[in-house]
Amino acid sequence: MKSLGWWIKQIFVGSASLLFLLLGLNTLWSAYQMHNPHEFIMLFFSASLMIMISAVGLIYPAVRIFACLKARKNDPCST
User: Fold this and answer.
1) I need a labelling partner for 36 at 20 to 30 A (CA). Which of 14, 21, 46, 76 fits?
2) Ramachandran class of 21: left when φ > 0, alpha when ψ lies in -120 to 50, beta otherwise
3) Above 60 in pLDDT, residue 11?
4) Do the beta carbons of residue 61 and residue 13 sit within 8 Å?
5) How far apart are CA 74 and CA 65, in angstroms?
6) How far apart are CA 77 and CA 73, in angstroms?
7) Which residues contact 39 (CB under 8 A, 6 or more apart)?
8) How does pLDDT run across 33-61, given as a tens digit for each residue?
9) What is the separation of C-alpha 63 from the centre of its chain, rounded to a whole number of angstroms?
């Protein structure tokens, strides 16, 4: 079984990524409310980058936890 610190790290990374995903979606929504094309482009691309980075931040702990739980069937997680 992984240590408590490992689980806290995975939960923290997932929670922070979820927060930034919601912030990115909010920014994307506000980009479509812009009337100035330059502001739209800047907000659109910044929101897209935030969403992509937070998606990776959500996938990372999910894959790590899934691999740990899958390996737990055979033998406890190492390291």
Assistant:
1) 21
2) alpha
3) yes
4) yes
5) 15
6) 9
7) 31
8) 999 999 999 999 999 999 999 999 999 99
9) 12
> Is 23 within the bounds of a domain?
yes
Task: Report yes or no on 28 lying in a domain.
Answer: yes
For tokens 């920014």, the residue is: 27
Which two three-digit tokens encode residue 10? 């995975």
Identity of the residue numbered 62: A
- Residue labelled with tokens 């999910």: 62
CA–chain centroid gap for 55, Å, is 4
Range of the domain at 28: 4-74
Domain count of the chain? Answer: 1
Closest CA to 46 of 57, 58, 54: 54
Q: Specify if 58 maps to a domain.
A: yes
* CA dist., res. 49 & res. 10, Å (int): 22
